[in-house]
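Q: What would this chain look like folded?
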Amino acid sequence: MKIILDAGHGFNTAGKRSPDGMKEYEFTRAVANYARPLLEAYQNTTVYFAHSDNQDVPLKARTDRANELKADVYVAIHANAYGTDWNAANGIETYVNPGKPKESYELAQKIQKNLVIATGLSNRGVKTADFHVLRETNMTAVLTECGFMTNRHEASLLRSETYRKTCAEAIVKALADQYSLKLNANSNTIKESPTESEPPAKNGLYKVQVGAFKEKKNADELAEALKKLGYSPFIFFE
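A: My prediction, written as structure tokens:
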């Protein structure tokens, strides 16, 4: 399977920018770099970059190469912005072209769901758009916006290596689910067992918090998404 990862924009290509100067490509290239080895841990999977750190690649060159490679799927990674000053716009959204087959929408839904659950950010939904990389590619194509560079909180997340890894892992999980990818036998992706210094809980519980929100509706949305995945989440207010 051939997968194209497209880190939106470039070092010099105009893209979004946070009010304090972070360029969009700083984030997008990092996510692509984290995602590539995770994807290559799956059987019969080859990953190509549409972008380059050596030169800014025009959109047409990106889609032409994807088509020449006869890629199976194209994933464009971006960060959002609303205006140029700090504001309250926030959340995750994913785009497909309305002219693409059903598979594009299914993949977009999986990426959107996984990103929202993994990051805890608000769900802006799956939307349609006539973006070049979605329109001119001959394969399943999606574009995801992983947070707002004009939101102080989300901009701080976008700078974080932990958040970048989280976004990469969520996108890879969605691709693996969509295409039923199987890990290579020698993959380092293994489930760790408790160590002697970290014994299993006996009389208590280990708890994992998956989100923290200022608005209850955002917590409710995440809880519903978790329920659909078979979990039993609960919401508490501090």
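The chain has two domains: 2-179, 200-238.
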